[in-house]
């Protein structure tokens, strides 16, 4: 069995369903239950017996040595034996004497329990698993929770009465108090030996129930304990004392173990720590039984002494605690079983070696007695297996192959093969048969699909629920119990209402018809194809073989093949295009064939794609080694194809355009950067002539170029975010080496001249309308060139004065972006094209964008280092001469209300220098008819109201700026402002300013503290 069982680890059902094997397993499990052992068991317990111990040792051997059976872990072996033992229990558990004993003892334990008795100390680990499952069921049913609540709600009731009431409310049937999990865990604690490794875990599970508290109720903030109600009475109190004694005995045992191990120097330190932690846990358990504070209603667990382990009390964790698991003892039990198994195997091996079988003993004794006799050499396993196979009957030969009927081919005259028209007619005729049959099969498939769809719609309608009402008559049958028989009052009429499932006969007929039609079509599809179709398929395959043999790879056939495909197309194109091999042709023929395809792309995109896909540009470049002029001619051909196909985008051309894009990318990468400038000019021409993009092909060309010059550094894509794009541009500029400084400078000058020229010729509203589809990739490419030019300029002109380098770099970058961002006017007007000069004769300055594009413009942002220089120079101006208008004040307010810290400091320094008293008096004086009219009606001018509102907002906000608060002019301004007409400010504006000030100021300024700032006092006043 030890050698057979591992063969079925992956398929245990092969064993569990085999009755003879299960019978053998059952006999092994019950081999120790002889009459002698049963008689001895009445006096002393000798469980487990020798055979059962060996059986357990065999299982442990399988699990520990899983690698011998090509398993990654012992989990599969554990599952196999678990399923095996479960199957054995189900196979034999309910029959014979064991079934009778199980029925007789079923009342001694919980209903549906796997334990025959309340505790099972001989099976401690199995008992832990069973009690854990049954305890979780007790908790999930609400029995434990409701029992605690009932005991807490009625202090006078007994445990039995409360349990009976709770079980009745929950519909659990009658449950005895002796079957509660707390008593069963406690009984297991009492019955286990003090030195057993399963005792600490069992004690943990017991204390999870022993320390349980009443669940909190509404308007109740303290959790009480009613555990003392479980130990009322002499019997229960004696039971609790036994538990205390067992905990004390376990503590003394582990303390003795810890003292013994502390005296041994060679003992592992980690093991000593585990033993110490286990002793600490047992001491805490002993204290839990004695400490009365744990059962008080107002106990605060974190405040308990450390020796009580308050963290464990707060966890309420049903998982085994690491301190309670004695890993060493558990592993030692497994090693003990392995030693038993090894001893048994050695003994069995010795017996098989020394012992002699009856049939072979005379000869074997003779051979052993004669040492000079030559021993028979042992055979290899392969030879032994082959010799064993020869003892069986020879297998039957394979069945004969039925003879195939010859295919009757049509007779073709030799003249037909010579006449081109006749041959093409013959081929087209048979290809037409293939196409016709394929269309027929496609029609059958569509018909099957339609029938299945109808069937799926009809099936849900086959049965329906119909509300039915019927009356049943029940006869009066008096009971046959008692002397006096009651009289019957007659038959009883019972009204029955129910939903009846009724068959829809019409739908059933339609379903039957549908399935009949389905079978007819299916049989039609399964019929063998007609002879003409087989002949046509053979001729079509022969045509393909002929093309592969006489066309593929022959340079003289490629031109006519392309002409035939483009002229005839259709079915003929599908047959000829796969045999097109342009790489075998000379260079001039290759270029000529490539250039002839693009004009046919709009009318025949499929055939153009098939032929174009045969042009392996990378292979042609590597094998043919074309010169620079040939490559340039190919680039011009691709450019012409793009400019002819992109202006009128057609989704069917997307595959063709993508192939051209791949070919252009291959040409760009070959001997880069030889064709870099040429490809860049091509992309500028394509971008200028393309107003509608087809699948992002034209924009993708720019990203192909950028990814080529930044290969190995970064990758660009249209989906990149702004921050990632800026970071990629910086990395490229700092690490790029593929473009020399001279090439970077030439690229910058070429792009500058090109875009400025485009702006002067077509730029009535700038370049954005013309390059609207390509603005993002062009801007990214210009950013790459700008950053690369700046870095290369500083590296190549090392030692040149810094101001000269900055002036030169700024001039180059400014010219690169001038066509996009610089307004045109003045002398630039002389370079305008005539039509543009005529349209703009009355416009002084020509902006680089259309008025409708202003909403799409990016947010302007000035860097802090630029603002610092500007503010430093502007601050030196005589701002006390400034007399701001209402519009200026509104602009001040708009700036201050935004989060611009640098600008706030500058605005604050300017505002404290202005003579606001004069400004306010000017606003209050009647300088206009509207102001005079408003004052004549007893109202102030609207400008004065707005001025005071803005001024209040400005003064409060700049008073919170740290740099402005240090100025003495601010306090002077605030004192002068006390005399302003603040009564003009409406309540809503005043409340908005106050809310901002309350959220921004320090709350301590309302207190009269010695270090309070006078600015805060002035603001409050």
UniProtKB/TrEMBL annotation:
Domain Epg5-like TPR, chain residue ranges per copy: 139-326
Entry superkingdom: Eukaryota
Stretch list, region Disordered: 352-381
Keyword Nucleotidyltransferase: no
Cross-referenced Pfam families: TPR_Epg5 (PF26103), TPR_Epg5_2 (PF26573)
GO biological process assignments: autophagosome maturation
Keyword Cell membrane: no
GO cellular component term of the entry, any: cytoplasm
Annotated signal sequence range: none
InterPro entries per UniProt: Autophagy-related_EPG5, TPR_Epg5, TPR_Epg5_mid
Bias (Polar residues): 352-373
Domain Epg5-like central TPR repeats: 556-860, 861-916
Keywords assigned by UniProt, alphabetized: Autophagy
PANTHER family: ECTOPIC P GRANULES PROTEIN 5 HOMOLOG (PTHR31139)
Family membership noted in the UniProt record: Belongs to the EPG5 family.
Name under which the protein is recorded: Putative ectopic P granules protein 5-like isoform X2
Source organism (scientific name): Penaeus vannamei (Whiteleg shrimp)
